[in-house]
Amino acid sequence: MPVSRETFLSNVWRDGIFKDKVLFCTGGAGTICSMQVRAFVALGGNACITGRNPEKTEKGAADIASVRPGAKVIGIVADVRDMKAMDAAAERCAAELGSIDFAIAGAAGNFLAPMSQLSSNAFKTVMEIDTLGSFHTAKAVLPYLVQSVQKHKNSGKAQPTGTGGRIIFISASFHFRGQPLQAHVMAAKAAVDQISSSVAMEYGPHGITSNVITPGPIAGTEGMERLSKSDERSVKESKAKIPVGRWGEVKEIADATVFLFSEAGSYVNGHVLVVDGGQWRTTGADMGSTWRYPDFFLSGAAVEGVKGGKKSKL
Ligand code: COA
């Protein structure tokens, strides 16, 4: 579906800053990641997106490519839990588009569940998609990012051939203060943050930068459908707890991405960039009237009324 430029990019970036550069993004057909990739492609780059669902991935790639005449966007079906599949995806991307200059480890899985209703397999599934998947993504793309940064040195001075050799991990803020119903994701994303730190420390000497973007509640995303109720009262309560008083826009995550990938972000390494309107500081165990704390946990009830609710096996 055509998307107008102002919905995914602020009018402060120069066209062509990513000309002929290549972005590799896992989970790239998702609501947030597709806008990050779209912004990159609009500013001159080409991209490969990966996903588990063939139809969603291929459609997503074609949709993103429509943002700029001549843009090349390839959809690759690959599960981030499979190291060999990630290696093959990165190899194909570099072979078909010429390089991998930037990467986003964006594939994630989430749902709301109290620990009492979280099976070992449920916990493991999210750890494998988010944590192992981020590690696999980094392992698969880092050799290409090293090649890229050799061509586009990170000197801190003006970079005539543009930037390269950068990776962003998509995380969450649940583990900053603690968030009931998110035991699996708190564990997984805390680990993701530390994978980024390791890349920053161990690959920084090659000139690579590694950072985390932590989106807060972003309007119109699959994450919000899975994690929040959409009735008027719940939405009002949710927004009231955010210091800036509103949910974020996908474009605000895309803008943060462009900043970190552009020359403007050259000296930012090992950072967690929280783009949430200040939300994490004012939330935590207080889950509002939807799942009142601690009553909800004492009741033993299941999470209902969100898209990511547990499916009955009956
Ligand atoms: N509450 C509790 N457990 C749940 C659950 C929920 N809402 N949803 C799934 N699970 C459990 C399943 O019951 C299963 O455990 P079991 O075998 O002990 O029954 C386990 O998690 C794996 O579920 P399954 O559906 O087989 O895994 P999957 O690989 O097909 O899907 C998920 C992975 C569960 C993360 C799924 O929600 C998903 O595909 N998410 C992708 C989109 C997404 O979450 N995006 C994030 C936006 S923030």
Please render the helix and strand layout as text.
Layout: E1 22-26, H1 31-42, E2 46-51, H2 54-65, E3 73-77, H3 83-97, E4 102-105, H4 120-151, E5 166-170, H5 174-177, H6 183-203, E6 209-215, H7 222-227, H8 232-240, H9 250-261, E7 272-275, H10 279-282, H11 295-299
Parallel strand pairs: 1-2, 1-4, 2-3, 4-5, 5-6, 6-7
Bound molecules: coenzyme A.
InterPro entries: DECR2-like (IPR045017), NAD(P)-bd_dom_sf (IPR036291), SDR_fam (IPR002347)
Pfam families: adh_short_C2
Enzyme class: oxidoreductase
Task: Describe the fold and architecture.
It is a single chain. The chain has 314 residues and is an alpha/beta fold. It has a single domain (9-299), classed as Rossmann fold (3-Layer(aba) Sandwich). It contains eleven helices and seven strands. It has a seven-stranded parallel sheet with strand order 3-2-1-4-5-6-7, sandwiched between helices. β1, α1 and β2 (46-51) form a beta-alpha-beta unit. α1 (31-42) crosses α9 (250-261) and α3 packs parallel to α4. The chain is globular, with a radius of gyration of 19 Å. The protein binds coenzyme A.
